[in-house]
Amino acid sequence: MKKRTGKGAVCGLMIGAAVALMMSGTAYADPITVVSWGGTYGAAQDKALFNDASKNTGIEINRESGASMSKACLQVESKAVTWDLVVTGSGGAAAAAAKGCLEKIDFNVVDVSDFYPNTYTDYCVGSDVFSTVMAWNTEKYGAPGSPGAPKSWADFWDVEKFPGTRSYRANSVDGVLEPALMADGVPADKVYEVLSTREGMERAINKIRELKPHIAVFWESGAMQAQLMKDAEVDMITGWNGRFDNAKKDGALVGYTFNQALLDYDCFAMPKGAPNKDTAMKFLAEVSKPQYQANLPYHITYGPTNKKAYEVTTAPKELIEALPSHPKNVPFMLPVSLDWYAKHRAEAQELYMELLTQ
Amino acid sequence: MDNTTALPISIRSLTKKYGDLFALKAVDLEIRSGEFLTLLGPSGSGKTTLLMAIAGFNHPDSGSIRFGDAEMVLTPPHKRDVGMVFQSYALFPHMSVAENVGFPLKLRGMAVTERKARVEEALDTVQLSGLGKRGIDQLSGGQRQRVALARAFVFRPRILLMDEPLSALDKKLREQMQIELKHIHRQLGVTTVYVTHDQREALTMSDRIAVINHGELAQVDTPEAIYNKPANEFVADFIGESTMLQLTQDSAGRLTFGDSVVASEAPDPSHKDWSLVIRPERLRVLAKDASAGDRHVIFSGTVTDAVFQGETAFALVKLTGGSTLVVRFGTGAVSEGSRLEAGQSVSVGLIRDDLILIPSDSAQ
Amino acid sequence: MTQTASTTGQAQALNEVALAGQERREQWTLLGLSTPAILVIAIVVLVPVGWLFYLSFVGSDGEFSLEHYKKMIEYKSYARVFMTTFQVSLLTTLICILLGYPLAYFLAHLPGRWTGLFMLAVLLPFWTSLLVRTYAWLVLLQRKGLLNDLAMQIGLWDSPIKLVHNMTGTLIGMAHIMLPFLVLPLYGAMKKIEPDMMHAASNLGASPIRSFWNVYFPLSVSGLVAGALIVFVLCLGFYVTPAVLGGGRVVMVATQITAILEYRFDWGAASALGVVLLIATIGVLYLAGRFFKFDSALFGKG
Q1: Distance of alpha carbon C55 from alpha carbon A190, whole angstroms
Q2: C193 Cα distance to chain centroid
Q3: Ranges A295-309, B171-185, C117-131: which has the least confidence
Q4: C240 CB contacts (<8 Å, ≥6 apart)?
């Protein structure tokens, strides 16, 4: 489970909420409820961030899985908030904030002065940087960087030069239109400008329509991205870099490139009316410190949002340089514009659903 | 129902086994054209198996079934052209009365108008005129029975089979239907094979009865013969009430029971052991001092129970030898002083001409 | 009471008033006993459905609005999603009928001691997780799955056939999951058909085929309709199987609702879809009910 999917979370969430209710009465300062995603992502956060931060501050935490902004909003709207800190994708946080579901972050408590620009907003604080990349079966198209291997979104669309099946995102427009425009020749820095008109969006949609006959599967989750590559069900796919690294560790013949990838971040958000707002804010300040984020790369290949983490980390150079937020990689990528998503996501989503249901 | 020609049925060494058990054991049976023959036997005797074999619903292991001259044993049931009334009636609940009765005619491709007339005629015969449009679930048990009957003969089969068709009806209706069935049989003239376990029903309706037990025919004969001259202990026991006394043969070759001499010699010298079958209604209570004469075989004993049952009464008489006889008599005789009371000593007599002697050993 | 009756009215029979009172009390008691059930139904069914209707008319500004319904007309994707939903449900139902009828027939005519064993085999899928069964199909049907591997090894086809991540895979998975829902009521109806019915039909001169169509099938059709309706309605709201085996190509209403909730937190839009699906389902059931009556009349004339 990762990113803005998390749909199997529904059940876990209900149970989680019930458990949280039962546990909300422990002695000593009330424990705060921290909700993340399951699988390797949540485990990585536990090991790098939560366990140590809890020990060092003395703040007890209830860890739950099944984070979802829609569930957080449901809690807020039904005035039964049990969550204090929730992991979310940046877009999800922006949408939830727009619906008035989130508390403002108190930047007097949380120090973001060393953060990369655009890795926090008034309503959420970045926890890690990931990248939506183009990945492929290395047996079919060669290892990344080797001669003849795909390099750009244009290659992803070029089914003559790279014959084979493709996989693209299902049900959500997040990270869907940008690659299409770049494949259509729009330079990275002009992508959001073009997309800010209906014509621009339709141009991107039409480009995807062109590729649709070759899209064998539309993926719905990070787990599915990894599985599709492990099973060699498709030859080329879009997805989140950490998932492909994990799939590779499991033996999948998969490689990817940061070139033209979409730079994005996950963050912590606080539902409005969180039961332990002040304690949770302190905990958020703690996990945002560089010494914790510095440990994250050991567990998952997502980069820190705090620049200082690169200074204090003890991780080996190859690992550091493979992170999406590494200064060496960032220039190749297009940072996702939350501003564009806030303004145009609803319309873009409808247009993409039109295409998917055709 | 004139132009019906009845067919005889000839069954030769028909055998059917279920596992190691014989349901039918080399059964030979000639059913005459137009007769009403009842297969009578206890449950599990094979009577239904035999009927189903005639209808074609089960495959015998060996043997022959002929309708007239035609071998039928390999013919599938829908080509045998026999009518059948099922115990459950098996009326089609999704069809009306007329549709049920018209079904076999429709299958035979009969035109609608002719079909309608024939259905009405058949419903008339079973006294259900005008009920054709009714649904099956709107009928009483007796009416369903009649519809089933009409459906079985409407296509003028030359053989009619009935599998305990009256068993679901109450006693009064059943007795009424027995007469009616017999009447319809006479009207149709069709060869009818009727299965029942009710001996009274069999006696009432049949031209002949085939008593069947353990897959074998015990006796095939007219009702009177079956009752008066049972061929073996099973038939004697199964048909009517009876007490069986085991006789001994003395040195003079006489058959005796206790002190009573029953017969001066065995009817058939090839058998040594004989039983006397006594029908309760054939016993007469004699005056206490009655002496043994040529007319009666006399038994003496004590009344243990006396039971009044309306038109008849019966008494249990314990004989000196230990056996108990049932004596049944008409209650019209009460005024004549033949009323019995428990504890009373009596002599009962059996007219010699009415003696039923059956060998109780196998022939030597 | 007796006294009252005898003094007040000569028209009243003995204990008439008291007995009538007792009968009334019994009826009230019965009503009282069923109250909890009625309340539970009200709470579990009516309240959520009412809430669903209410939410579907609340716009993003919190005021009464038809915007969610307007959007469903404005964008063709919604109509297509409903089309897909009904298409998948109908096809699944048809496949279940084609597979389930012979299967139920087979089960209903097995000798007793075998029935239990085969019934267990039919019901076994009920006891395994839906997700597990669905993923099992994925493993079997995918490009490098067992089926393609096997078929290519024995030379049935040369390159992998696309069996999953499309309508085919979805229908295979759905039919497998839905089959027991069709077979069980159908089996029940078939078990109720006495063997004598078929004997009677053939005795009256019907060939096995005519016996089947004129007698057996009409008598089993109530179970078939019941099973088919259960399957169809369950299919309409199905999520997991099309999501996993459809490869994003088979977008059904439930998928769309989840997407709206997950990515847009838009309860109103999701509710509107739910309302339309609910109304469409009720409409289909109503039509099926009428059609079935019409049908049974047809069979009656048979």
Answers
A1: 39
A2: 23
A3: C117-131
A4: C130, C131, C134
Of C132, C75, C82, give the one whose Cα is nearest residue C251.
Answer: C82
Helices and strands (DSSP H and E) totals, chain A: 17, 9
Both structure tokens of A137 = 């079966």
Does the pLDDT at position C121 exceed 90?
no
**ipTM for the assembly:** 0.82
In a domain, B14, yes or no: yes
CB atoms within 10 A of CB C63: 9
- Burial call C95-112: b when 16+ CB within 10 Å, e when fewer: bbbebbbebbbebbeeee
In one-letter notation, the amino acid at residue A264 is D
Nearest alpha-carbon partner for A122 in A106, A101, A100, A99: A106
Nearest CB to C215; choose among B55, B83, B92: B92
Closest residue of chain B to C295, computed from CA coordinates: B94
Strands B243-246 and B83-85, by their bridges, are unpaired
pLDDT, tens digit, for every residue of B249-258?
A: 888 888 888 7
Q: What is the pLDDT of residues C158-201, one digit of tens each?
A: 888 889 999 999 999 999 999 999 999 999 999 999 999 999 99
Q: Which of B181, B216, B237 is the last residue of a domain?
A: B237
CA-CA distance, A269 to B333, in Å (whole number)? 110
pLDDT exceeds 50 at position C138: yes
**Mean pLDDT of the region C124-148:** 89
User: What's residue B261's pLDDT?
Assistant: 81
**pLDDT, mean of residues A322-348:** 91
b vs e for A202-211, b when ≥16 Cβ sit within 10 Å of the residue's Cβ? Answer: ebbbebbeeb
Dihedral angle over CA of B205, B206, B207, B208, nearest 10 = -160
**CA C47 centroid distance within chain:** 22
What pTM was computed for the model?
Answer: 0.81
User: Is C28 touching A (CB cutoff 8 A)?
Assistant: no
* Residue position matching structure tokens 């009655």: B290
The gap from C-alpha A89 to its chain's centroid, in whole angstroms, comes to 5
Shared domain check, C163 and C113: yes
Range of the domain at C211: 67-301
Residues A177 and A192: their CA atoms lie apart, in Å, by 10
Q: Using CB atoms within 10 Å of the CB of residue C293, give its burial: 0 to 12 exposed, 13 to 18 middle, 19+ buried.
A: exposed
- Contact A69/C265, CB-based, under 8 Å? yes
Residues on chain C touching B108 (C-beta within 8 angstroms): 205
Cα–Cα distances in angstroms (integers) from residue A262 to residues A117, A181, A188, A267, in the given order:
15, 12, 10, 16
Of the residues B191, B215, B237, which one is the last residue of a structural domain?
A: B237
Do A and B touch, 3+ Cβ pairs within 8 Å? The answer is: no
Q: Which fold has domain A9-129+265-334?
A: D-Maltodextrin-Binding Protein; domain 2 (3.40.190)
Of B92, B93, B108, the CB nearest to C205: B108
**Average of pLDDT values for A188-198?**
96
Neighbours of C73 (CB within 10 A): 10
Q: Are A71 and A9 in contact, with CB atoms under 8 Å apart?
A: yes
Subunit contact B94:C205, Cβ cutoff 8 A: no
Indicate the Cα dihedral angle A156, A157, A161, A167, nearest 10°: 60
